[in-house]
From TrEMBL:
Molecular-function annotations in GO: 6-phosphogluconolactonase activity
Enzyme Commission number(s) from the entry: 3.1.1.31
Keywords: Hydrolase
A Pfam family recorded for this sequence: Glucosamine_iso
Alphabetized NCBIfam families for the sequence: pgl
Domain of life: Eukaryota
Protein name in UniProt: Probable 6-phosphogluconolactonase
Swiss-Prot/TrEMBL catalytic activity: 6-phospho-D-glucono-1,5-lactone + H2O = 6-phospho-D-gluconate + H(+)
Glucosamine/galactosamine-6-phosphate isomerase domain location: 18-249
Length: 266
């Protein structure tokens, strides 16, 4: 059974006893948001990340979700991507295609991956252009507060260093406020060239879910939710603070092991 909780200004915490329980809760959550969005807007615009996230979404490929979700209304984006060929082992697109997209009836033209034939800078510019066109046609909503796109759901993982998407600690990309999509060529994790949503775009989403598992992420999660670093700095995950949207953390007990709120760890 998930142990729900709320941390002041840090969203809803859902701590799960088992990985299977987390996967089921995550699938229920995504399916419900999809249903609401399709009923309200006629579309479901979802941005994915890489890492273990796709595997944790795996129950969406199974009964009942593969039959009950209106996959024809899904529009797929990536909150970050490695600037490699689509069939490269490091590609977030390939990860999602192999683990999810090829197993459910999503319309191929609704899958918006980056142009993998150009530089990181060109790929970021091109991806922002694509998103801007889809904002114009209302496939992606627009924020009421700024001109940023308002994705129905952005799914993120968490690095052991506190990074989210491809926004790494102390990196200048964290300060980008004008662009929707930016690029980096010096990622501390290989491959070095990546594109990423900027913080204003992430924080403009209707819903942001951060999925974190494993004891190796416990320190980063503690800094993301409860503590500021000893030097007063904020890790990138701490900067995820939807302006008007909802933030939910999907956690296993190992990742949540260093959270101090005893009600969540009992």
């Amino acid at each position: 059974m998930a142990l729900p909780g709320a941390q002041k200004d840090r969203g809803e915490l859902r701590i799960h006893e088992s990985m299977d329980e987390l996967k089921t809760d995550l699938a229920d959550y995504i399916a419900e948001l999809s249903d609401v969005s399709v009923k309200e807007r006629g579309f479901f615009a979802i941005a994915l990340s890489g890492g273990s996230l796709i595997g944790l979404m795996g129950k969406l490929c199974e009964v009942p979700y593969n039959k009950t979700v209106d996959w024809s209304k899904w529009y797929i984006f990536w909150a970050d991507e490695r600037v490699v060929a689509r069939n490269h082992a490091d590609s977030n697109y390939k990860l999602a295609k192999d683990g999810l997209l090829s197993k459910v009836p999503i319309v191929p033209s609704h899958v918006h991956s980056i142009n993998d034939l150009v530089s990181a800078e060109e790929a970021a510019d091109n991806y922002e252009f694509v998103i801007r066109q889809l904002v114009k046609t209302h496939v992606v909503s627009v924020s009421e507060i700024n001109d940023c796109p308002k994705f129905d759901l952005i799914l993120l993982g968490l690095g052991a260093d506190g990074h989210i998407a491809s926004l790494f600690p102390n990196h200048p990309a964290l300060d980008e406020r004008e662009e929707w999509v930016t690029f980096i060529t010096d990622s501390p994790k290989p491959p070095p060239e990546r594109i990423t949503f900027t913080l204003p775009v992430i924080n403009s989403a209707s819903n942001v879910a951060v999925v974190v598992t494993g004891e190796g992420k416990a320190d980063a999660l503690h800094l993301a939710i409860e503590e500021v670093g000893p030097d007063g700095s904020l890790i990138p995950a701490r900067m995820v603070q939807p302006t008007t949207g909802k933030l939910v953390w999907f956690l296993d007990k190992q990742a949540a092991s260093k959270l101090e709120n005893s009600n969540l760890n009992s």
